[in-house]
Amino acid sequence: MSRVMIRYKVKPDQLERNVELLNAFFEELNSVRPDGLRYAAFQLEDKVTFVHFVDAKNGPGSFARLETFQRYRSTIAERCEEPPATTMLHEVGSFGFD
Question: According to the lineage, what is the superkingdom (predicted)?
Answer without folding.
Answer: Bacteria
